[in-house]
Amino acid sequence: KTVYGANVIVFEGILAFANKELLKLLDMKVFVDTDSDIRLVRRLQRDIMERGRDVAGVIKQYNKFVKPAFEQYIEPSVQVADIVVPRGGENFVALDLIVQHVHSQLEKVSQGAALASAHQGQPLPKTLSVLESTPQVRGMHTIIRNKDTTRDEFIFYSKRLMRLLIEHALSFLPLKSVTVETPQGTMYEGKRFHRQRITGVSILRAGETMEQALTAVCKDIRLGKILIQTNLDTGEPEVSPAAAWHTAMQHWHVTNHPSFPPQLHYLRLPKEISEDYVILMDSTVSTGAAAMMAVRVLLDHDVQEDRIFLLSLLMAEMGVHSVAYAFPRVHIITTAVDKRVNEEFHIIPGIGNFGDRYFGTD
User: Fold this and answer.
1) What pTM was computed for the model?
2) pLDDT at 188 over 50
3) What is the C-alpha separation between 200 and 210, in angstroms, rounded?
4) Which distant-in-sequence residues (6+ apart) come within 8 Å of 316 by Cβ?
5) Is 331 helix (H, G, I), strand (E, B) or coil?
């Protein structure tokens, strides 16, 4: 099972250090050691009480198979361990050391991610394309940004903007020169899209509103959906209930860390998507957290980074820089870019909660 957005991944097994390729991926290697007498006592207790075996049989098996196998295959792997923990889970000093180290590494990662927001005020990335701000486009933005706009008008003009955005995005797809014959018998030099397929992927729920505009201009396009709920307090993808493991870590001083493992709630992608040009749609991009997770999902399905087009009606500079910093070859296309994000992670001046206004749930 693929894990998306996890802060810490724990890989456990008695032969965890046997694979050299896996060792290269591990940031910290911990060998949990236990005295051989204690191991034997545990085995005796388990086999006698739970499996109904006799003492002599257990000891014979231990000396003939278990102990030699441990000494030959498992014990030598202690040489590659960064930390050796005697007495296992009862060694709270060692556990505290490990957790503090993980905590410090997470802080370094957070500082690295903060570099993207430090780009605010800097020139926007070259991978960004903003729809030309014609009087018509500004007029539609005025309507959808107005808090007094009725829901019917909001939907109507949002759809118009979406159509323009989709048409603008299609101009960045690779085209080849072709010559066709007109009904008058003359030749016309034109362009035609390559034979590669286009797939649309919407980030639910607001991104789904752009599907109608996409299907209106792209015939027989395949559609996929990704649901990544955003935590309104942090602006990050929402934590899953399984993240309650943090409460067990209170003794190890990490509960106040601002990041929590996010959860991918739903994923449905068309088959054989790896060679497609993918149009990834979300109505707004503020911090860029959900968009980055969606891009990561596509990359894990072997979609090429430079074939991903992130489309949004409105983006904040912070979100633009975050996505471009993490994925420099992803094409970012929008109708407007606003300067900042407030403490509630809303784009300012923005358009409010697009999904609530569009679906009438505000």
Assistant:
1) 0.68
2) yes
3) 10
4) 285, 286, 287, 337, 338, 339, 340, 341, 347, 348, 350
5) strand
